[in-house]
Design a protein that fits this description.
Blueprint lengths: L1 E6 L2 E13 L4 E14 L2 H6 L3 E16 L2 E12 L2 E14 L4 E15 L7 E18 L2 E14 L7 E4 L2 E4 L5 E14 L4 E12 L4 E13 L3 E12 L25 E17 L3 E21 L4 E17 L1
Antiparallel strand pairs: 1-2, 1-18, 2-3, 3-4, 4-5, 5-6, 6-7, 7-8, 8-9, 9-12, 10-11, 12-13, 13-14, 14-15, 15-16, 16-17, 17-18
């Protein structure tokens, strides 16, 4: 795969490779490699620092084991960039019941990050993450499937940015976020086969945390086959969230915690995306090859975060492109 993102002064691009090997009828292994070459001139950078470039590399490994109606999955990943290292591992169990009509899944992920600061060898901190997930998928009819999934996340450690600053009475001060955070999310999804080579899906997700952020996400999508080789997908998504307790665009009092991180502000965004898949069929007699291309455009609008260069509320658009090929043999 090759991915490219451009939005808000940030450009990120690079390749990714995933290989999955079936060992026998019950076991498969997978390995992945992902690269991000980032050129950053975001609103935070251009107003308080200078543009920079860096490369992030991620390696991942996974295994799936099937026993009767159960599937056990293990995954591990590590990513490295000049000032940040992240390591994680996860375990998931899925169990089919009621003759395969219902699937119950539970999972856990543990993450450990090391945070550094460029050109400051005295700064070093950590961040730890625990994620618990659970869900149920139910076949309603031969054409409709519904799923409900929940997620609980606990974070501990340095959850700020060593480069970002906040504003108090118009003066720049170091950002200071709480060192603990817990969040919850629940997701509802329905997928339907319309019976004429097309399908639809609808999804709603609600998120809340102990920083007072509440978020709603709604998505609708449509898919259709054209002939024997073409599949087209389109989707529209809308997201809105409230601000964190300690967020302020320009605080009028000095408090223990203070942040001007726009991702913790009140904002909303809308995304429109599309994907096309072309199946080449058998190539050289052994390879089942598919070519894919997807494009998304997202518009971000912030309700209480201003561009200090203009004094106006900040807004920007972002585009992302993915080109990828898969071969099964």
């Amino acid at each position: 795969m090759y991915h490219y993102y451009d939005g808000g002064g940030v450009i990120a691009s690079g390749p990714a490779l995933l290989v999955r090997k079936k060992v026998n009828d019950t076991l498969s292994l997978s390995a992945g490699y992902y690269v991000d070459s980032v050129s950053n001139a975001s609103i935070d950078v251009v107003t308080t620092a200078s543009k920079f470039k860096e490369v992030r590399q991620e390696y991942s490994f996974g295994t799936d084991y099937v026993y009767r109606d159960s599937k056990l999955s293990f995954s591990a990943a590590t990513s490295r960039e000049p000032d940040y290292t992240a390591n994680s591992f996860g375990l998931d169990i899925a169990q089919e019941t009621f003759g395969g009509m219902t699937t119950v899944n539970v999972g856990f992920t543990r993450g450990e990050d090391k945070v550094l600061k460029h050109k400051d060898p005295t700064f070093s901190d950590y961040a730890q993450h625990w994620m618990y997930r659970f869900g149920v998928a139910q076949i309603l009819t031969p054409h409709w499937i519904m799923s409900v999934n929940g997620e609980i996340v606990a974070d501990d450690g340095y959850l700020s940015s060593p480069y970002r600053v906040a504003r108090v009475f118009g003066a720049a001060v170091p950002e200071n976020d709480p060192r603990t955070r817990s969040s919850r999310a629940v997701d509802f999804k329905v997928i339907g086969d319309l019976g004429s080579r097309d399908a639809v899906h609808a999804e709603y997700r609600y998120f809340w945390d102990n920083w007072a952020i509440k978020a709603n996400t709604m998505e609708f999508g449509y898919s259709r086959y054209f002939g024997e080789n073409w599949l087209a997908d389109t989707s529209v998504r809308y997201y809105r969230q409230t601000k964190a307790l300690f967020y302020s665009d320009n605080a009028q009092s000095d408090t223990l915690y203070i942040s001007r991180n726009r991702q913790l502000s009140q904002f909303h965004d809308a995304d429109l995306g599309g994907r096309v898949t072309y199946s080449l069929g058998k190539v050289s007699g052994d390879f089942d090859v598919k070519l894919n291309a997807s494009v998304h455009y997202t518009k971000f609008n912030f309700d209480d975060f201003t561009d200090i260069r203009t004094g106006k509320l900040y807004t920007y658009g972002a585009s992302s492109v993915q080109l990828y090929a898969s071969a099964t043999f």
